[in-house]
């Protein structure tokens, strides 16, 4: 009897040991991918959905280097100091060497060097800064159209509509707004469009009335805005209260999170954008359908960008067959990648090939100007 008990004890010990091995194997076969965004903000839901959908598809297709991926969500609060803390923590931890995220231009420009110093790459899915191609931002990749590409499209659209004199507004002290307006100025000069006034100060309605009188006297035909955050809401509120009738050309930030846009101003607004939420064929349409089936609603631009960037990171690693940063950089610099926007490649560290176009409001939804069916396909 004692002999049988001893054998049973040995077998049980062996099983416990094997289960421990299995758990450890499973642990090492899971690859942690860091994603950073203001996840505490309500508007981050669609971005998170895009990441989750892509991660699910990647795992169904074999993962990254045959490892299942798990997403580690990091909240930076859209705050530069917090972003630095988050980037420092991520940089010190092992895991997948491509980090996806950060919401603002200032944050990306601040933390890119932190990731680079810790032998990690940063994919920036939301910002538009062409400054990522500068030497001091090595390791950070712009995975969205650049401010130069967006400004070029905006100016060309204005020129095609016969606009020759514009007033521009951007948020004071904001890198994105300043850089975007600078690009608008460069392209406007080439297109023969004059910037009659540029302002970055929106203190109150009375002060804004002063701007309007000035713009009237200078013959401004349209308003260009690269405002962000509360300034978007303030600007549109002032425009409504003063009975604005000028066309409003807005940068894509208006599409990143919900803003209060008065109904009377929606019909005057054109937004420079790049995700075709009315696509009926091709990879964009396939993404829209998959998103609708999973979440029961239409995807927006942040969802599309999160989805594209997650798939792009996985494709780069699988093509490199390595998690070595040098190997990843080589693959990113030498190859094209199939994405929801078609085949894309990098010009140094700026992604190239995403079509940029104007959107307008139809039934309270921004849709491509030349496709007025109303956003997304499905039953919502």
From TrEMBL:
**Membrane-spanning ranges:** none
Q: Which Pfam families match?
A: Peripla_BP_6
Keyword field: Amino-acid transport, Signal, Transport
Signal peptide (UniProt feature, chain positions)? 1-23
Record the organism.
Answer: Acetobacterium malicum
Which portions of this protein are annotated as coiled-coil regions? none
The residue ranges of the Leucine-binding protein domain are 42-348
| Similarity comment: family membership | Belongs to the leucine-binding protein family.
Could you identify this protein by its name?
A: ABC transporter substrate-binding protein
Highest taxon listed in the record's lineage: Bacteria
């Amino acid at each position: 009897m004692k002999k049988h008990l001893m054998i049973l004890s040995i077998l049980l010990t062996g099983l416990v040991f094997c289960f421990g091995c299995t758990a450890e194997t499973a642990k090492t076969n899971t690859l942690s991918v860091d994603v950073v965004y203001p996840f505490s903000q309500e508007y981050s839901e669609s971005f998170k959905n895009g990441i989750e959908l892509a991660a699910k598809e990647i795992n169904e297709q074999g993962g990254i280097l045959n490892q299942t991926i798990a997403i580690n969500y990091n909240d930076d609060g859209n705050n530069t100091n917090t972003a630095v803390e988050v980037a420092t923590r991520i940089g010190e931890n092992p895991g997948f060497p491509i980090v996806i995220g950060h919401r603002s231009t200032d944050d990306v420009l601040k933390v890119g060097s932190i990731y680079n110093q810790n032998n990690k790459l940063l994919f920036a899915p939301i910002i538009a800064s062409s400054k990522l191609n500068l030497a001091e931002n090595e390791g950070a990749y712009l995975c969205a159209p650049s401010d130069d590409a967006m400004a070029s499209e905006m100016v060309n659209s204005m020129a095609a509509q016969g606009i020759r004199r514009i007033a521009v507004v951007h948020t004071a002290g904001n890198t994105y707004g300043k850089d975007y307006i600078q690009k608008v100025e460069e392209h406007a000069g080439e297109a023969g469009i004059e910037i009659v006034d540029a302002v970055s100060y929106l203190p109150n309605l009375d002060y804004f009335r002063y701007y309007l009188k000035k713009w009237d006297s200078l013959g401004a035909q349209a308003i260009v805005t690269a405002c962000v955050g509360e300034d978007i809401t303030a600007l549109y509120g002032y425009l409504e209260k003063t009975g604005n009738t000028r066309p409003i050309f807005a940068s894509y930030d208006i599409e990143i999170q919900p803003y209060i846009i008065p109904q009377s101003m929606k019909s005057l607004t054109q937004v420079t954008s790049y995700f075709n939420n009315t696509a009926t064929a091709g990879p964009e349409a396939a993404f829209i359908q998959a998103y609708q089936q999973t979440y029961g609603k239409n995807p927006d631009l942040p969802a599309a960008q999160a989805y594209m960037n997650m798939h792009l990171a996985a494709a780069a690693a699988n093509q490199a067959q390595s998690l070595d940063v040098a190997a990843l950089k080589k693959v990113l610099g030498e190859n094209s990648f199939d994405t929801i926007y078609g085949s894309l490649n990098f010009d140094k560290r700026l992604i190239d090939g995403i079509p940029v176009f104007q959107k307008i409001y139809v039934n309270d939804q921004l849709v491509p100007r030349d496709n007025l069916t109303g956003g997304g396909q499905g039953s919502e």
